[in-house]
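Fold this complex.
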Amino acid sequence: MVHYSPVDRTFAALADPTRRVVLERLGQGSATISELAEPFGMSLTGMKKHVRILEEAQLVATVKVGRTRLCHLGPRRLDDVRGWVDVYRQMVNEQLDRFGDVLDRTKGDRQ
Amino acid sequence: MTVDQQSPHAVSFTKPSDLEFKVERTFDHPIERVWAAYTDPALIPQWWGQGTTVDRLDVRTGGGYRFVSNPGTDKESAVSGDFLEVSPPDRLVQTFEMEGPYGKPFTQTVELERVGDGTLLAITSRFDSTEERDGVVNYGAEQGAIGGWARLDALLKQLAAA
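Structure:
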């Protein structure tokens, strides 16, 4: 059995392009499952699955209103995620190039 | 910033196993100089990014480090770890942990290799699960390096402001 940490869940939830668009949409205000599914031409069952994953990652919260389920952004602080993501982005894309610049610039200054 | 895949100095990104990702780049400097610069606390703030300051750096087997980014701001964050193996000038193994609720330690192996008059520097990051590794690299690599990060960045900014 695989145990997912909060960070696993968060990244797994954010890794899917559909779910990122859903978050973007919910950033503009709450929406029902069918409103979220409609632009993708997706079944309600398919969208429910995406919303459940976002809910487990606490990126989305839902509330039942009559016969529909209303979705809105969840309690997870995205600033925290962002700080974490920044570190990796730097590691992958930027640090080695900057390190190269430092090496070139300090040529001869140090051993 | 753009990535020039043709450049001999382009950063290469690979997944050597189900648990790892690896970034590497060559530098036109001898291995001793690359090692010295890589482990120089005076130089680290210049390439680590985000206004990083070195809180602690003890480069020896059993030693450790702690770097603080954006100190004194509401974006302050810290990474820290232990040096499991330090063998100048070609090998360094360290743990890496982002402090705070999202932190989860993993292992980084830094390898330096003489290539002609230059040096190939490779950093392999090893995670506990494929899911965690993929979650981390999906933005950096599979979605097209910079573009993917920029998009995620923009999204997270927007969501944080919402």
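Residues 1-6, 139-152 of chain B have pLDDT under 50 and may be disordered.
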